[in-house]
Amino acid sequence: MSSHLDGNALAGALSDVFQGDVTAASARCAGCGAVSVLAEAMVYPDAPGLVVRCASCDHVLATIVEAGDRVFLSLSGMSTIELRRRP
Amino acid sequence: MSFVTRGFSGRRRDDNPRLPPGQTLVNDWPVLSAGPTPRVGTAEWELTISDETGADHRWNWDQLLALGVEDVTVDIHCVTHWTRLDMAWRGVSLDRLFENVESGHDFVMAHSYGGYTTNLPLEDLLDGKAWIATEADGEPLDPEHGGPARLLVPHLYFWKSAKWIRGLTMMPDDEPGFWEQNGYHFYGDPWKEERYW
User: Fold this and answer.
1) What Pfam families would the database entry show (chain A) (predicted)?
2) ipTM of this complex prediction, to 2 decimal places
């Protein structure tokens, strides 16, 4: 029988993932499949949120919407993100 | 800009009954864009309304203008907190475009050249509430402001007035468009400050 935990089990793993500078991370574009370092993506700041687009195909990789005491983060345009562990 | 204590008057900085909550008046027209600006000439521009029967209703530029261009003066409220009052537009009422569209669906997804989308209830596009705008401030719309044509739905936050409009697709249910998927409100009434989820 398979078992699962609730989302609280993510706390350790995700806080590990989201620490530090993620611009050095690589991501695979869900639109064209290109893998590139996030720092090389195109960021459009003059919008109702930050819009991050693939440098190869313009596909939207991510959006960040600042909403007062909330932040909406969408990473739906990236199929995978590769983060390097700190040495 | 200076900030001066206004004593006990209790007046807001922009105490104007035409200003929705959280908005500030501007006299210029800020350019907001979520991506590269599409350059679409009027010779290649086309607008399509797609209904559930699979029928497409299409207009090229000349056919659009032939439906009748109106002068429209409206207030514009952007979700990034700026408001411009009495902005002069010209455009074609969506009532004219929907005249021969038979659909039982109540919602619409607006599609733009460049891939932008935004969702609206059909009733918010009819009865003199929305236009396909081709001119603003007495000039043809610049590409940066959505030219050659953009949706104009002034009673909702301005992200609903999709730039570079190319199509309207009828939907049975209210599905989120681009910003609505990414944190913004499904409807976007500025008088209720419907900015986010």
Assistant:
1) DUF6510
2) 0.89
